[in-house]
Automatic annotation (TrEMBL):
Domain Exonuclease VII large subunit C-terminal, first and last residues per copy: 132-310, 313-400
Organism this protein belongs to: Acetomicrobium hydrogeniformans ATCC BAA-1850
Catalytic activity: Exonucleolytic cleavage in either 5'- to 3'- or 3'- to 5'-direction to yield nucleoside 5'-phosphates
Family under the similarity heading: Belongs to the XseA family.
Role of this protein: Bidirectionally degrades single-stranded DNA into large acid-insoluble oligonucleotides, which are then degraded further into small acid-soluble oligonucleotides.
Subunit-level organization: Heterooligomer composed of large and small subunits.
OB-fold nucleic acid binding domain ranges (all copies): 14-108
Protein name, UniProt field: Exodeoxyribonuclease 7 large subunit
Coiled coil (UniProt feature): none
């Protein structure tokens, strides 16, 4: 065995821990190894009671140990099986107790169609049981949105299509774009981030759209995190991921699904030309209804007036007319009685006056003598011989002259 003194002078003696943690720092601080996506075939997989998942992937000449902690494993459906070809996204780290490096997985994407289909179906069944796809939880879109958010690629054609349709159909609406990745292994997490940011704004509707592509490009929209973020959004979500036939789980969770971004925008933004037509039609209909209502009210007023007149006539005027006729008759009878009584009194008074009338005396031969001045002569002392007097008789007057005066002897 070589002696310690025989070691090269340049060699540094370090402990296993020092070497292990030195290598650990080198690996974990490497920017490339902090975020890698490794393609391989699952060799073995085991889900621990703690919720962590331990598995290995390999290719022709190498093998890589992987671990996915419970916080990330909860978003992976129970589809991974030995033999499935997958892409594992995460970071490379060194596990000191075993002195081995491993891949700490954040996400797993299936590559084979069978595995993809199986993963989607298993996740779909689980989310259906939770009620995330229930039509009863779908929210109605506001007919006239003022603020609309768009979650999509900032450089893709989808955002241009949405803006183009919005300007043509409903230009007064304000559009807010929330950029995100729409494909690749990091897309689901980025979509969730963009939707969470949009949820903090006061929007009426949120569009989740992307342009056309292959079916594999739609994988991020089948991610459980994206599906749950759609249902967690505080306002309605409309999806348009660019495929006529393929439905993603995001489409099932959305409040409305459209085959393309343009179709999604047409469902969200009302057509202003049609709105103008509707307004004109509503105006004409409203005017017609108002005129019809006015005519109805006028007819009703006429009927009520006639009814009121009949009520007044029957309840007040007719009885009052009868009472007035009765009172008039009584008044007439009373007036006739009064007039008769007055006539009798007048006749009696006339007879009395006639009896006391000087003319009555004259009719019996009496004569009234008047002086020249028109004064009644009642005594001889009022006249003298030669005075002219008037003698008033029953049928006229005669002028005479006093020729002599004879006083009555006592």
């Amino acid at each position: 065995m070589p002696l310690l003194n025989n070691l090269p002078k340049t060699s540094n003696v370090i402990s296993v821990d020092e070497l292990t943690f030195y290598l650990k720092d080198l690996i974990e601080k490497d920017p490339i190894l902090r975020n890698v996506a490794v393609k391989g075939e699952i060799i073995e997989i085991k889900r621990h009671n703690s919720g962590h998942v331990y598995f290995s992937i390999g290719s022709k000449q190498s093998r890589l140990s992987c671990v996915m902690f419970k916080s990330n494993a909860n978003y992976i459906p129970l589809w991974p099986q030995a033999g499935d070809e997958v892409i594992v996204q995460g970071y490379i780290g060194l596990y000191p107790p075993q002195g081995a490096y491993q891949l700490y997985a954040r996400n797993i994407l299936p590559l084979g169609k069978g595995a993809q289909t199986r993963a989607k179906e298993e996740l779909k069944k689980r989310l259906e049981k939770e009620g995330l796809f229930d039509p009863r939880v779908k929210r109605k879109l506001p007919p006239y949105p003022n603020k609309v958010g768009v979650v999509t690629s900032q450089t893709g054609a989808a955002v241009k299509d949405v803006i183009k349709v919005a300007k043509k159909r409903f230009p007064q609406c304000r559009i807010y774009v929330f950029p995100t990745l729409v494909q690749g292994i990091e897309a689901p997490q980025d979509i969730v981030r963009a939707m969470q940011l949009a949820a903090t704004k006061e929007l009426d509707i949120l569009l989740l759209v992307r342009g056309g592509g292959s079916r594999d490009d739609l994988t991020p929209f089948d991610d459980e995190r994206v599906v749950r973020s759609i249902r967690a959004c505080p306002f309605p979500v409309v999806t348009g991921v660019g495929h006529e036939i393929d439905w993603t789980l995001s489409d099932l969770a959305a409040d409305m699904r459209a085959p393309t971004p343009s179709a999604a925008a047409e469902n969200v933004f009302p057509d202003r030309i049609e709105l103008y037509k509707q307004i004109r039609h509503m105006k004409a209909r409203l005017l017609s209804l108002v005129l019809h209502k006015c005519q109805q009210v006028s007819n009703l007023c006429e009927r009520q007036l006639a009814r009121l007149q009949n009520i007044l006539k029957n309840l007040y005027l007719h009885p009052a007319g009868i009472e007035i006729a009765r009172l008039t008759q009584n008044l007439s009878m009373n007036m006739n009685k009064i007039i008769s009584s007055l006539k009798e009194r007048l006749t009696h008074s006339a007879a009395s006056l006639d009896a006391l009338s000087p003319l009555k005396c004259l009719s019996r031969g009496w004569i009234t003598c008047l002086s020249k001045d028109g004064e009644t002569v009642v005594s001889l002392s009022q006249v003298a011989v030669g005075d002219e007097v008037s003698l008033c008789m029953i049928d006229g007057r005669a002028n005479a002259e006093i020729t002599s005066i004879h006083f009555k002897e006592e």
